[in-house]
């Protein structure tokens, strides 16, 4: 995969990275500052 840009940080503290696979399909990775779901 090829990075589309730099890792960006949202105002809420989430980190977002966007990549493109060899066919041009976008893949978005998000590291949440706070989990969306509670751990069990």
From TrEMBL:
This is VOC domain-containing protein.
């Amino acid at each position: 995969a090829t990075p589309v840009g730099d890792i960006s940080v949202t105002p809420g503290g989430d980190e977002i990275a966007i990549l493109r696979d060899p066919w041009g399909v976008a893949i978005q990775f998000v590291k949440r500052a706070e989990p969306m779901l509670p751990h069990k």
